[in-house]
Design a protein that fits this description.
Length: about 280
Amino acid sequence: MNYLTGLERAEVLTQALPYIRHYNGRVIVVKYGGKAMQSDELREQVMEDIVLLRLIGVKVVLVHGGGPEISDFMTKLGKKPEFVDGLRVTDKETASIVQMVLAGKVNKELVSLIEKKGGTAIGISGIDGRLIEAKMKDERLGFVGDVTTINIKPVNDLIENGYIPVICTVGTDENGNVYNINGDTAAAYIAGALDAESMILMTDVKGVLRDMTDPKSLIPELTVSDAEKLKDEGIIAGGMIPKVGCCIKALEKGVKNVVIMDGTVPHSILTELLTDEGAGTLIRK
């Protein structure tokens, strides 16, 4: 293992200074889920990165999913997970399971880990303060929600009081129904409501690839019009289409830039925000 000398460490910090200055006092929304959540070691590193960013003055908001945990719990209860077009079919019972697993288990585990790493966090769901109001997306899917309104005051209150908000993406309607909300979509709406400097989508691929079989074909930067052309050409395809769509939605709602990056790479958030190199595909207007 190679270790940095004191001088090399000082050089790294010096190079990061312009980025620290740029992001100080600004809001960054991190959407966290998928394989980056499955490894305990990776989970710890991501929380360390978030705590470090908060300590240097970045206002970090963590939005998380937990699909594999939901499926595991459903299986233990003898309930088979079903999906249509990549979205979980969510009846009343499944909506209760989603709420229990995300708000009661995953959310509190992440809050605890942030606290363990020296940060100060409070976990909330989209139901709290009616943060995420939703309506039924498609009767075939049951209680899967489309976001109708973001009531951002609870999140702003937490940020202004020095907390890292940790948000799980369940929502509600005026009748008190609980909805399962796609994490990327919820993050885009929340980032827009916060007028965030950046939104980071942590996934299990490097970003947008020109050739899906070649990780070296990463496209480091795109405009919205570039992304539309790549969709027409079939380069942005499959599961990357809805992710890029959420990025464009965030930009339309006022987020300055959005990054899709590989959350399974250690300290990828710091590499993206605090170095020239970056760590994924940056999408901007």
